[in-house]
Design brief:
Cofactor: [4Fe-4S] cluster
EC number: 2.1.1.192
Organism: Niveibacterium umoris
Bound molecules: iron/sulfur cluster
Protein name: 23S rRNA (Adenine2503-C2)-methyltransferase
Strand content: 15-25%
Family: Belongs to the radical SAM superfamily. RlmN family.
Amino acid sequence: MRIEDIRTRLLAGGAKAIHEQRVLRAWVNAQPIGSGPHKAEDFLPLALRNDLPALSAELQALARLRSEHPGEDGSARLLVELADGQTVESVLLPRDGLCVSTQVGCAVGCVFCMTGRDGLLRQLGSAEIVAQVVLARTRRFVKKVVFMGMGEPAHNLDNVLEAIDLLGTAGGIGHKNLVFSTVGDHRVFERLPQGRVKPALALSLHTTKADLRAELLPRAPRIHPAELIERGERYARATGYPIQYQWTLIDGVNDGDDELEAIVRLLAGKYAIMNMIPYNTVPELAFRRPDWARATQIARSLHQRGVLTKLRNSAGQDVDGGCGQLRAREMAKGRE
Ligand code: SF4
């Protein structure tokens, strides 16, 4: 379901723009429509009022909690069931953040990611993306949403941008607290600046070498890392938010001194933050996590050389590692 479908249905029930806004605002803020000082539903057209129970039930069924896996760092992974029984993961992050999924599966096929192993199963509709925020808001306050869960947002661009528009307006989330995360795609650089809600941008870089990047991210668009950074820099200057570069640090793959030299050459002086995230080792894949001392040394050295660098543990690591694992485990159980 897309947000556009909800609007069409409201219109069919006789809703005017003000009614539509009330209903959508109540939904995206996880409030019952009749709540608040004005008993808003009393003012809705009769046909729409009669349709509200059915519509509310359908909206609730868009994203249901299948299981919750709290971590020690204040995060919690949620396995979310969609109306057709498919599942995706959302992560409640420390400091009122939420990470949402944009696709079931993913076509980019990053070799270090569990989500990419089965390819793309289906797109999420914009309403299903927002429904993950609504579900999270029934459990916690959410003031930041990052599109870094399962899927590549650039491959589902219309739905993701529609969700961003609603979250940044009726959803009350500050535009720089909506973070569009991508491996890099020309369409992203064309479309993002055109929206009335301009999100912050995270670019998954992982290496400065074009050939290694093609190996690690086999079906990402072939944009040279240097060009990606140039285009990112233009977006950062236009919006006033720094680009967040994501770098999954993998032992013996992209943690060498040659990479560090190239990062300094490309990123020093740029309006950017480098997020280094040591890879979470999983039994199914051959990659290894670098030791923490090496990761700390890399982050410190980049920082000293003019690249604002943050070393991060991926949230929820102690409850089972990277994105896609809860779903993979659940699917395996189903096959037993
Ligand atoms: Fe897709 Fe992201 Fe996994 Fe790559 S890391 S396969 S882009 S979900």
